[in-house]
């Protein structure tokens, strides 16, 4: 077992603690750093898992990126892709849905693509989720080339 941030080998207890708190293999130093972000920004556990999975697959994601008006769970700045992890679908009202749509509109106006991924997808279908995000990034890269 290795820390996904620095590659340092980690022991059983360190591993278990990190898995309990954030669901990602991290050494105690990096667990502390990630926990700080998680507590400050209320980052969902699944956002951390997806962030490290994307990293492992060669993307260059940023965690809790500030887009000028709000914090985005994960951003891939090269292609202006923002990813939010949705955790409150059961409780979604039409008011929230409308706010989401407005947010999406604002992002498009600013040249960003916004996607919202339900946390259960990350939890149960992480590799498929990663595959599709990579596909979206590839698609955006192609589109950016066409524009430039
Ligand atoms: Zn580490």
Explain what you see.
It comes from Croceivirga thetidis. This protein has helices at 12-21, 28-41, 45-56, 94-109, 119-124, 126-147, and strands at 62-66, 71-76, 81-86, 113-118. Strands 1-2-3-4 form a four-stranded mixed beta sheet, with helices on both faces. Helix 3 (45-56) crosses helix 6. It is an alpha+beta fold. The chain binds zinc ion.
In short:
The chain is α+β, with helices and mostly antiparallel strands and 148 residues long. The protein has six helices and four strands.
Give the domain tally: 2
Radius of gyration, CA atoms, in whole angstroms: 16 Å
What is the residue-averaged pLDDT?
Answer: 91
Bound molecules: zinc ion
Helix content: 40-55%
CATH architecture of the largest domain: 3-Layer(aba) Sandwich
Low-confidence stretches: none
- Beta-strand percentage range: 15-25%
CATH superfamily of the largest domain: VSR Endonuclease
The major pleated sheet works out as: 4 strands, mixed
The CATH class of the largest domain is identified as Alpha Beta
The topology string of helices and strands comes to HHHEEEHEHH
Number of strands: 4
| Secondary structure category | alpha+beta
Outline:
globular
Strand order of the largest sheet: 1-2-3-4
């Amino acid at each position: 077992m290795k820390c996904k941030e620095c590659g340092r080998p980690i022991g059983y207890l360190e591993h278990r603690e990190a898995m309990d708190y954030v669901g990602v293999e991290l050494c105690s130093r990096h667990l502390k750093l990630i926990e700080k972000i998680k507590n400050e920004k209320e980052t969902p556990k699944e956002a951390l898992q997806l962030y490290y999975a994307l990293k492992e697959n060669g993307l260059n994601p940023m965690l809790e990126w500030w887009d000028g008006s709000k914090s985005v769970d994960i951003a891939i700045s090269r292609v202006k892709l923002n990813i939010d992890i949705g955790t409150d679908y059961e409780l979604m009202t039409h008011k929230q849905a409308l706010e989401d749509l407005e947010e999406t509109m604002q992002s498009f106006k600013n040249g960003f693509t916004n996607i919202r991924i339900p946390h259960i997808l990350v939890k149960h279908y992480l590799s498929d989720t990663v595959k599709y995000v990579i596909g979206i990034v590839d698609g955006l890269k192609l589109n950016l080339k066409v524009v430039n």
